[in-house]
Write the structure tokens for this entry.
Amino acid sequence: MAKQNNLFLFILIIGVFGILTTEMGVIGILPLIAENFHITVSKAGLLVSLFALAVAISG
């Protein structure tokens, strides 16, 4: 039973790391995204909000 708990914990840690890395990665390149699509940084910032909302709903 402890081995299953360790596997579950490992999968959970990898999932949380992936989600947070993805959000922070988008935040890091937000000015580039805004410049590429010719929009303001605040509008491009909605990408992070929409991603977080999608994660919250699917969670």
Notes: The chain has three helices and no strands. Residues 1 and 43 are 48 Å apart (CA to CA). The mean pLDDT is 86.
